[in-house]
Design goal:
single chain; 8-stranded mixed sheet; two-stranded antiparallel ribbon; 28% helix; globular; binds coenzyme A
Length: 212
């Protein structure tokens, strides 16, 4: 959306996909967030320690309270609900790093109970639609700890291109860790969707609309 000459992101909530609803977080999500963010296995490759309800409540009142992106430095965290049950199963986040370079970064965290169904892929793919089609970004990155194989597969499924393997770049949770950097450019995103109209369907492992 172009607002006062600047491109901003003002999604119509909820953002709907086949099986999910994406919408801003609220204090009502505290318990659902703590249910997975307090787990060591979930935080293993994330740059923070397991969170308790006080920390989650503080985040909900600050960093996670945004509904829009209006300028660089903003980050939009959207809760992901199962459309069928209304259960909150994870989050996707979009960081808007630079107006000049039209650059952003994508992140994802989900409850392990709901892994293995493609929900994170479906939600992150919806966030890429917002990033490219609405915020008009030129390049979206994802930074993944090299040992985080589920996340590497997710970035790959999203059609993101591996650009770098940084060796021992960060002191991470008691040791030097490698980082794999992925990126997707706006023309690559457009190609994926126009050269292969079935790309979205293929990615989400379901038949294209024409074949349904
Ligand atoms: C990273 C993370 C979101 C990945 O979760 P995930 O369950 O593997 O991802 P998805 O929900 O997209 O599910 C994909 C899996 O379901 C399978 N699947 C089943 N049905 C599917 C469908 N309809 N569409 C796509 N995948 C489907 C896929 O084959 C894939 O399995 P595989 O990786 O064994 O091949 C999760 O591990 C997580 O939250 N980790 C902790 C937080 C974290 O590390 N975040 C990343 C920081 S960079």
């Amino acid at each position: 959306m172009v607002h006062h000459g600047l491109v901003e992101l003002h999604p119509d909530y909820p953002v709907r996909t086949d099986r999910l609803l994406l919408r801003p977080l609220s204090p009502d999500d505290t318990a659902a967030l703590v249910a997975y963010r307090s787990k060591a296995e979930v935080c293993r490759y994330l740059p923070f320690e397991p969170m308790n309800s006080e920390i989650v409540a503080e985040k909900l009142a600050t960093a996670w309270s945004h509904r829009t992106i209006t300028t660089e430095g903003n980050a939009l965290t959207l809760g992901v609900e199962l459309a069928e049950t209304g259960e909150m199963i994870g989050e996707v986040i979009l960081f808007f790093h630079s107006v000049k370079h039209r650059g952003g970064e994508l992140g994802w965290v989900f409850h392990p109970r709901h892994s293995g169904h493609g929900y994170a892929t479906e939600a992150a793919h919806a966030m890429l639609h917002l990033a490219f089609d609405e915020l008009r970004l030129h390049r979206v990155t994802a930074r993944v700890v090299a040992a985080n194989s589920a996340s590497l597969r997710l970035a790959d499924r999203l059609g993101m291109r591996q650009e770098a393997h940084l060796i021992g770049n960060e002191w991470f949770k008691g040791g030097w860790s490698d980082e794999i950097d992925f990126a997707l450019l706006e023309n690559e995103w457009a190609d994926q969707h126009s050269v292969s109209p079935a790309f979205c369907a293929q990615l989400l492992n379901r038949p294209p609309q024409s074949a349904r």
